[in-house]
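Dear support,

We are seeing what looks like truncated structure output for some complexes. This example has two components. We would appreciate it if you could run it in full and send us the complete token output so we can diff it against ours.
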Amino acid sequence: MPEAAQSQGGVSVGGKSRVNDFVVKFANVNGSGSASANGLFARSVMRMGVPVAARNIFPSNIQGLPTWYEVRITEAGHLGRRGGVDLMVAMNPQTWDRDVAEIESGGFLFYDSTRAIPPSKFRDDITVIGVPLTAMCNEAYELPRERQLFKNTIYVGALAGLLGMEIQAIEDLLADDFAGKDRLIKANVEALHMGLSYVQKFLAPLPLQVRRADAVGDRIYVEGNNAAALGAVYGGATVCAWYPITPSTSLAEAFTGYCQDLRVDPETGKNRFAIVQAEDEIASIGIVVGAGWNGCRSFTATSGPGISLMTEFIGLSYFAEIPAVIFDVQRGGPSTGMPTRTQQADLLAAAYAGHGDTKHPMLLPADPGECFEMGAQAFDLADRLQTTVFVMLDLDIGMNEWLTHPFQWDDSRKLDRGKVMTAEQLEAGADFGRYKDVDGDGIPYRTYPGTHPTLGGYFTRGTSRNPYARYSEEGAVYVDNMERLLRKFDTAKALVPAPVLRAGKRKTRDGVIYFGSTTPAMHEALEMLEAEGRSLDALRIRGFPFADQVFDFIDQHDRVFLVEQNRDAQLKTLLMTEGEVDPAKLVSMLHYDGTPITARYIAGEIARRMQLGQSEAAE
Amino acid sequence: MTYILKPQLHHPKLPTNSLGYTRRDYEGSVSTLCAGCGHDSISAAIIQACFELELPPHRVAKLSGIGCSSKTPDYFLGNSHGFNTVHGRMPSVLTGANLANRDLIYLGVSGDGDSASIGLGQFAHAIRRSVNMLYIVENNGVYGLTKGQFSATSDKGSKSKRGVVNTDAGIDMVSLALQMGATFVGRSFSGDKDQLVPLIKAGLSHKGAAFIDCISPCVQFNNHNGSTKSFDYVREHNEAVNRLDVITPRDEIKVDYKPGETVRVQQHDGSVLSLHKLNELYNPNSRAQALGYLQARQARGQIVTGLLFVDPKAGDLHDAVDTVETPLNQLNEHELVPGQTALARINQSLR
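Here is the complete output from our reference environment:
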């Protein structure tokens, strides 16, 4: 056995005890097999009944570049990022300096002490825990691959010892994960105990402790892309056409997996779905539009660059009134931007995609639970409104596993196929005008191709036409149609998910508006602000077009903070374009460095602006 | 308004097919193309082919891109649903439509501008996916709707109406379709109805990706000396390899050429293609020979027409993605939505 590492740095193991409330960050090299070990760590904490929020910060690369995995252990259930790191597991020499710098004062550094590291590379105000991982692996394993992989499991065992975790919870999880592969289970359990024994022999537990609790409840742990894909299955989608692009790829892949599980005809073994990996994003949306025209629920999943490519078709879908669903898993733009980092920067591109006057409904899920619900609902809305509906995820929701309420489905729920005229209705003499506003809601009736031999056929085109779908270049006819499309958009207001109000504890003239993946960090920030005596009313927007409630909320407050994860305050632009809003009231807070927004950032920025406001008022 | 409805009156003694439809029932609105346009002849050939095949008009879905040729689906099969999509992207829309309902017959109509330039990628990929369709390119070697620019199928060295010489190599859509794996490939000429109508009938009956390159001179911009897509040029350089008859399962088989001159090919739907060979050397069942023959004749300045390749046992995209027989757009909630029980199991797997 190698010698125990000497504790380096000036602070002894000690300090304030923190139970079930701290942040562990793993710094690794990608392609080293660390992801599964880190995931094992996070899920083991959850098996002990303690909520976690885990986030992958990874490069656009397969092997050799830095990658991080941040695990927030939070019995209080704060699922956003807090900001700061209490325990850094520094396994990547490339990023050592910045990783060490990121540790909170009084925090802890865990590292592989096989090779001596000069004292200048540490800090005086943190506690350093060295475990000679490489030396242990070299002694225990022959094959280089085993040495690399089991090093990860060994550090999980060591952390379990340091943090007081139940080793049984980890072993149970290993048994579940590798069910049927007894050799793998045995090898991993041995590695786990190798790390644990070392800690028990040479080191003391840290003041950061994980203790069994009952705070997870019946929640599930799932990626937003996975949840959205399942939503598409429950929403009745049968055609999916897609083109690989980070961070949306796993959505189409999850849909494929769920369809193979849930959508195969048990009698014939044939598929009740068709999935095409198209040659590009343009063909993907073309296939979706073709299937939508022909009466199928169809979708594509993409990200910003894909939206750019699809824009012409999205305009066609708007004007020719064809249902389509697009899941936009947003990443950092513009151009190739930051493909593996998160942003909410496609709002404007999606809302107004197309040339000429176009606008499209958007659904804005805040967590994987909503990705499932809105993923299903989007198909009802697309059919009802006969247009493209966007579901706006982002990388943070889409590609990270989140703890979220379990999926639920009401078996009495019916798919809303919208206004479709049948052969019987046509036979009975219904007057069919494809673009005629019969019900005053701006939504016309359509027929599926092949409905009737002589009635209900029409020619679909992206050019202007009269209510009976006949080509027309007459100004008045064109304007009538464009006005009807506006009425239809107005109808959509009541159909998209309504905003959610979270009132401040005390009466206040300050409001904050937010959406999407900002939500958990915002909720925590609101609690932090309340604790400082700052009350704010908060409104979470969940749909576009905006409900009247959104504009009422702005009217009812003197100052409204808008929190967004993009540079140009795109939500603010949308609000000012779509409603009568006094821009002087709106204060933008923009976090767009590609990492998920933190509670500390939001609370700090709001407090600073409120203080500024007070001092200005005092002058 | 540029939409012109056709008068509904017709001669009481117009012949009807077994479904009770006259030829007029397969017509559309009045064409707005230039008088004498080759495309109108192709529309007429489509009308005749559908009438003779006795297709219920609403069972055909016609799709197109953008351009003169892509306007034509408005001028035939007026009772069918049609979709004039975006420039160069008809193949993807047709693919999606086909996935949604495998029971309809899909007719894609495009031009050389639409399919050989902006749409070359989608053309190639729809063919290689074996989408069950007949894809017709109405090929005039010129951009008509924007008034006379060269297209990608214009031959190198050909002259525009203004006397400009094309310096780029022309794309041969037939060779491309063969290379991309089309299972039915033909070429014809808008001025040769006897050849074109049976070819369209055969293509509509074919299961898999059927392609017809139909040379269709543009009377306004590409029908002059120096053009290789003019009426005169095509008539002089046409090398027809065969004459085709399509015998549907309903027809009494009457055609009987002498042995050695006729090739019979039975397709999936039971129709028999009877090919009267004009050229003894030509074998329509070999992709490799078809490509070689095309190139050899092309080198001599000849335009080979006829049915150039057919694989009567071809499959389609639905076979590849293994979909149920029921069209996907007709599946109900019970078949599509797995319900709360399945969801509870999924929830459990995510804890």
